[in-house]
Amino acid sequence: MIRTEEMLLNVGPQHPSTHGVFRLVLKIDGEIIVEATPVIGYLHRGTEKLAENLQYTQIIPYTDRMDYISAMTNNYVICHAVETMMGIQVPERAEYLRVLAMELNRVASHLLWWGTYILDFGATSPLLYAFRERELIINLLNELSGARITFNYMRVGGVKWDAPEGWIEKVADFVPYMREQLKGYHDLVTGNEIFLNRTKGIGKYTKEDALNYSLSGPNLRCTGIKWDLRKDEPYSIYDRFDFNVVTREDGDAYSRYECRLAEIEESLKIIEQAAEQFPKDGETMAKVPKIIKVPKGEGFVRIEASRGEIGCYIASDGKKEPYRMKFRRPSFYNLQILPKLLKGENISNLIAILGAVDIVLGEVDG
Amino acid sequence: MSGEKDLEQLKKEAAAKAKAAALAKKKAMAEAEGGPSSEGASGEADDLAKKKAAAVAKAKAAAAAKRKAMEQAEGGSGSDGASGDADDLAKKKAAAVAKAKAAAAVKRKAMEQAEGGPASEGDSGEADDLAKKKAAAVAKAKAAAAAKRKAMEQAEGGPASEGDSGEADDLAKKKAAAVAKAKAAAAAKRKAMEQAEGGPVSEGASGEADDLAKKKAAAVAKAKAAAAAKKKAAELGGSDAGVDAKAKAVAAAKAKAAAAAKAKAAAAGKGDSGAKTSEPKQPSPNQVYLDKYVKIITEHLGENVLEDFYINSLSKDVPTIVVSRSAYYKIAEFLKYNESLGFDYLSELHGTDFETHMEIYVHLYSYKNRQSVAMKVKLDREAPEIESLQPLWAGADWAECEAYDLLGIQFAGHPNLHRIMLGEDWVGHPLRRDYEPYDVEV
């Protein structure tokens, strides 16, 4: 029997596998993690504090910078919160543009995750494939919004710009292409024995744990809970599309991997239908007062972002700035379960477990 | 070791000072703002004593000065030029009162005081001059002061209520053109432009009304003053002009009413009107759930555990319960474990500083019943403390840490309450309304 001693190992905040500035203080005994303490806040910019002095439209660019991998959904949640409280009806064409933008962004977000997750295991080429496809989406969104990452595309009542000529056709063309590539992804990685060995049965948790720890998105659905706000509490025009809520039963890293890849397929379905149904013409902005004043009171809405349930709480005193704004950020809640997952694990599984949670530190820190 | 202690001591002292300063500031602000809100009282004062009324106007100007020193500085120069002739009458009085007020209100910044002085002199000078003859004019001056205070809102509100500015065109073409220009400039550029032009605009409007209608103006002005508390000063200016031109006034009033109704509908939202039309006739589909929750909770835990309960129409009709401080944990536990409630998922927990109290908002969801509930609890603002929900929902862990970090709420029974975002050496809690940034090095 080898005698081992406990020691402290610091991981991060600058560490490639954390995909941002995330620090973990590990107490290890040999190769086994005895205790893991996450340290966050390195990217805290006080978005909620800043929002108290900004008008609603001015807050939208700040939401881009929370989950900067999936900025469209963040744009949407604040607009949706304000629209819900003010009772604004968003024009149909704007809703379609929003859904297209959000779903494209979701695909891009999952692609980035897929590439970097495999990269964490040491395989370089999948990242390049993922970025090749992601680049196409970014280009599409760039044509739409004028930005590649921080889109600032949506406005209360609609979207900032109508789609340029031929954009919808380009989107429609992208769908079959992406489907084809997705098959390649599965051929390349999903069946790979090394990959399976490193993810199957790793970072496993139960349904009850998932609920208890307030997990959402693929992290929740990988345990078999069929829950997707797009389906279960439909917002925007999601009730018009035919798509499935992807679930897996095992609750391990591999299930989360499968969930995300299958979600890309479902998003493609939505994009395809939305491009087909896209209205020929119409407004892209509702009639909204120039100075947006949310009626006195409070409201909380939540939508399905790429990483799970993103919520926006607004307490308004009727002024043009929110009295208090709070974002329910999925990565922040999803990360909480990490110490529990890491306890007793081999340190070589740390990256596989952390990566499968899929965090964006801009969102964790708010 | 002693060095560290000294630093600690220093920090603490500085924090206490900053807090005290913030409190004083807030108090001063509240006092200063108390003035404009007591419109009725000042109306009486008008009738009784002209000087007093003038003083009230000054108080307002001082309050305005406090809030937006920058705006005042720029707006002041505008009004100074226009009402320079009026200054002679009440210069000494105005100066004395304004100074006293400024001294009371603005404690720290000499710059603000110096700039606030002239600004309020300009306003009050105007007010005094008018007050000599008519009480109405005093009210008007107030309106003007109010207009000034909301210079920003005016300028920005203009383009929003395009209907309003359209009517203004009909009434006073040149002025309206100026207004439109100011608005365009405001939209295109920034404050500086707005302020410079904002002054003359509001003066012009009030001056007109004074010349034309004395008695009517008095009545209208009072009504307006009341309205001013609620609505934009821009609207005030518009309806002033309406009184002037009687023929057009009717049409203008109608259009205004329509515009106001529109604006209201847009601003207040369908949430309100929707709630009004749908709630009495057919209650929200979630009403049954709310009734059910309330019934079960009161049956098991007693009548007085709930302070309030309602359907929040602004928040997608979520059933909302406000629980009493002492029953918070008990109800949370009940919501989770009761067979027919089964709220197994904590979606969101955060705190809000409402100045009168601290509040915690918890959004729960039941995957079993596919139902949401929002639970709120009010805490004492000075020493906010509440039981932790972490033992019930592990997901509350970091959320409570965040509320502690940013708002200073203590969660009893939390296993690891720490400053999750800012770090342990941070002074103060930024999302508290009285927060003053503090830096040891500065």
Question: What's the topology here?
Answer:
The complex is a heterodimer of chains A (366) and B (442).
Chain A: E1 6-11, E2 14-15, E3 20-21, E4 23-29, E5 32-39, H1 47-51, H2 56-64, H3 71-86, H4 92-120, H5 125-145, E6 154-155, E7 158-159, H6 167-190, H7 193-199, H8 207-212, H9 218-221, H10 229-232, H11 253-277, E8 297-305, E9 308-316, E10 324-328, H12 330-334, H13 338-342, H14 350-357, H15 361-365
Antiparallel strand pairs in A: 1-4, 2-3, 4-5, 6-7, 8-9, 9-10
Helix pairs in contact in A: 2-3, 3-4, 4-5, 4-11, 4-14, 5-6, 6-11, 11-14
Chain B: H1 2-37, H2 39-48, H3 50-67, H4 69-82, H5 84-105, H6 110-131, H7 135-149, H8 151-160, H9 162-171, H10 173-188, H11 191-212, H12 215-230, H13 233-244, H14 246-281, H15 287-301, E1 306-312, E2 318-323, H16 328-337, E3 345-353, E4 358-366, E5 371-379, E6 385-387, H17 396-407, E7 410-412
Parallel strand pairs in B: 2-5, 6-7
Antiparallel strand pairs in B: 1-2, 3-4, 4-5
Protein traits:
heterodimer; A: 366 residues; alpha+beta; Cytochrome-c3 Hydrogenase, chain B; 3-stranded antiparallel β-sheet; 15 helices; B: alpha/beta; Beta Polymerase, domain 2; 5-stranded mixed β-sheet; two-stranded parallel ribbon; 17 helices; 7 strands; elongated; NADH_Q_OxRdtase_suD (chain A)
Please characterize this protein's 3D structure.
The complex is a heterodimer of chains A (366) and B (442). Helices cover 47% and strands 14% of the residues of chain A. With 366 residues, chain A is of the alpha+beta class. Chain A has a single domain, classed as Orthogonal Bundle (Cytochrome-c3 Hydrogenase, chain B). Chain A has a 3-stranded antiparallel β-sheet. Chain A has a 3-stranded antiparallel β-sheet with strand order 8-9-10. A two-stranded antiparallel ribbon of chain A has the order 2-3. Chain A is globular and about 75 Å long. The model of chain A has no long low-confidence stretch (mean pLDDT 92). In chain B, helix 3 crosses helix 4 (69-82) and helix 12 (215-230) runs antiparallel to helix 13 (233-244). Chain B has helices at residues 2-37, 39-48, 50-67, 69-82, 84-105, 110-131, 135-149, 151-160, 162-171, 173-188, 191-212, 215-230, 233-244, 246-281, 287-301, 328-337, 396-407; strands spanning 306-312, 318-323, 345-353, 358-366, 371-379, 385-387, 410-412. With 442 residues, chain B is an alpha/beta fold. Among the domains of chain B are: 1-108; 287-412, NADH:ubiquinone oxidoreductase Nqo5 subunit (Beta Polymerase, domain 2). Chain B contains 17 helices and 7 strands. In chain B, strands 1-2-5-4-3 form a 5-stranded mixed β-sheet. Chain B has a two-stranded parallel ribbon with strand order 6-7. Helices cover 67% and strands 10% of the residues of chain B. Chain B is elongated and about 60 Å long. Classes of the chains: A alpha+beta (366), B alpha/beta (442). At the A-B interface, helix 3, strand 8, strand 9 and strand 10 of A face helix 8, helix 14, strand 3 and helix 17 of B. Chain A: It catalyses: a quinone + NADH + 5 H(+)(in) = a quinol + NAD(+) + 4 H(+)(out). Chain A: Keywords: Cell membrane, Membrane, NAD, Quinone, Translocase, Transport.
